[in-house]
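For reproducibility, we list the full input for the fe (ii) ion complex.
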Amino acid sequence: MHSASLPPVSDAHPDVTAFFDPATNTISYVVRDPASTACAIIDPVLDFDPAAGRIGYASAQRIVDHVRAQGLQVEWLIETHVHADHLSAAPWLQQQLGGRIGIGEKIVEVQRTFGKIFNEGTEFQRDGSQFDRLFADGDRYTIGTLEAFALHTPGHTPACMTHVIGDAAFVGDTLFMPDAGTARADFPGGDAHTLYRSARRILALPPHTRLFMCHDYGPNGREIRWETTVAEERRANIHVADGSDEDAFVAMRQARDATLGMPRLILPSLQVNMRAGHLPPAEADGRHFLKLPLNAL
Ligand SMILES: [Fe+2]
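The corresponding predicted structure, in tokenized form, follows.
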């Protein structure tokens, strides 16, 4: 899984526009090739009110408006992983703007696990075929003239990938800002040892690499932030900085994870996101339903 040699990190400097969703503390990104109009959308959010069972498009519409105002061509819609705290707007954005939806190839493990938990029938394919592209570790792709590659960084979930695009890396939930550390590693398929090694793998990128988080919760009342650098994480990350110890990290992570409740939207999110953001098939009358498995998580 961890290939010894990765593609070279290019020094191209993509334009990155962030979209913060206060309902789920998620940051979505539009990453643009400065030499063309090509762009990628990373981790877009579909609004969801679980009490009403109502879906909304306000967050995704902000991205559509930005892409259209800038005259951009969407080449990719990238999920850093199967999110457990928000629904993906990738298929809705694909309809509006085009582009291919991509995720890590280990999505098949996530589909196997949650296919069982949601008692899906055989019509739910566990082969990743709902996505347009499955990235393996080290896979290269382009956004216009920008060189990009995917880095497999499991631990939070088995399918987590970090996407390195020019001098910018989109780390998903493998790292948080330095004062927040790392994400939990206790979802099915998660592993704290693996998370530590993945975090350190990101921190082996060139020190000036810009790192963009998928989440920030503003610890200790500070303002929300989502951008840092490899050098800063290596110096100051409270969990995985230089000099940190894997076993101590694992003990800390497991103790902390044991105190955390499940994310509010985990059941709706997984059912939709394991289908690349598509809703489960409609019933005969055309309506869509989500399941609420009892005592399964
Ligand atoms: Fe996550």
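The mean pLDDT is 96. Residues 58-70 form the longest helix (13 residues). Both points were considered when choosing residues for closer inspection.
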